[in-house]
Amino acid sequence: MGSRPTEPHLAGTKAWAMLTLVTVGFVMMTMNWFNISTTFGDLATEFDVGIPSLALLISAFVVGYGLMHVPAGFLAAKIGLRTALAAGLVLQGVTAAGSGLARNYEQLLALRIVSGVGASVYAGLGIAAVSIWFVGRAHALALGLVSAAFSLGVAIGLYTWADLVAATDWRTALIIGGVLCIISGLAIAVFYRVPAGSRSLHGIALSGSEIRQILQNRNLWFFGLAFFGGYGAYFAASQLISSYAVDERGIDVGQANIASLVVGLAGIPGSILTGWLSDRLRQRTTFVIGQLLLMSIGLMLVPFIAPSWLWAAAFLIGFGFNGCFAVWQTVPGEDGSIPPHHIATAVGLMLTIAGVGGFVVPWAFGLLVPALGYTTAWVCLAAVSSACACIALATPRRATRPLDTPLTTSATL
Prior knowledge:
Layout: H1 13-34, H2 40-47, H3 51-67, H4 69-79, H5 81-99, H6 105-134, H7 139-167, H8 170-191, H9 208-215, H10 218-226, H11 228-247, H12 253-265, H13 267-281, H14 284-301, H15 310-328, H16 330-334, H17 343-372, H18 374-389, H19 409-412
Helix pairs in contact: 1-5, 1-6, 1-7, 1-8, 3-6, 4-5, 4-6, 4-17, 5-6, 5-8, 6-7, 6-17, 7-8, 7-13, 7-15, 10-17, 11-12, 11-15, 11-17, 11-18, 12-15, 13-15, 14-15, 14-18, 17-18
């Protein structure tokens, strides 16, 4: 993935406008993903459910989120990128707002699954919607801003929505979040455009040979597996570091929550700075591995660092994960064997491979804690993250798309 260092071309005004539309959508997507946790106290009372049922609401969304990455790519190739992109975000918004109208727990659970499906459609297509404008034009920086938007949406969903729930009620808060998501999706439907000359991005007949080529692409599989451990370790760390700090290290709740917040917010500078540096140096693989190793150092420090410095380990985890994610996302757009109208499918395949780690690694962490203790579990998180990262070293060499011109289908088909 690397080549000689070169100065990245600057994207035009229209490209940055399209990026703005898509990044706002990512804020809405993650905000409506994570804001459900701010309603748990009220939900437990109104629906008379306990922690297992509340935790299931989180898992239900993730189940939906894991279902549609690859099918969404096929859908976008068939009906057009803009239509599919907007449809995913509107679907999430409708079901998120509908969650505020749920009459019982079962309805809410079903709506969370469908909401995850909408987010799944938007996530992979949103990355592709940025790549087609920015290959060769600050590509990793643009996707770093997408990652930063993801982190910002998480922070808003977890913290701002808690204040909104307190000021109104849980139903009103969820409805407001859903409506904002719908508005963002409709804005994409009206204003988003693909680059001139990108005819196939408006929709084409699907080709079985092209689909097989994407699904059998070793480059995508190797990079997907390289992120398998880090992806799962991040979800485990971001959700469990706070409770670990309180229960195991005796840190007060306020400090523990700060550590949890830092994991999310550190991703903003991590993704932007790493994306910018990667564009200048063109060393994609080096940055993917390096940032995952940085994240692994943070994970390793968690059980050994002084409690007052836990935030520093949290910073390394968030910075490293999102820095890797920003560069990792450029792989499909810069693979010369992938037609532009299938970049979304390629992104979806990588997200699906890494997403399996999002299920397996936190589950394994949960089994290790009672069996071997927290210290061993954190060390294992660091080990699996760094071990998987090394898979990127074995990535097959492929012809990369020219990095000195914007991506259009007329140039590659």
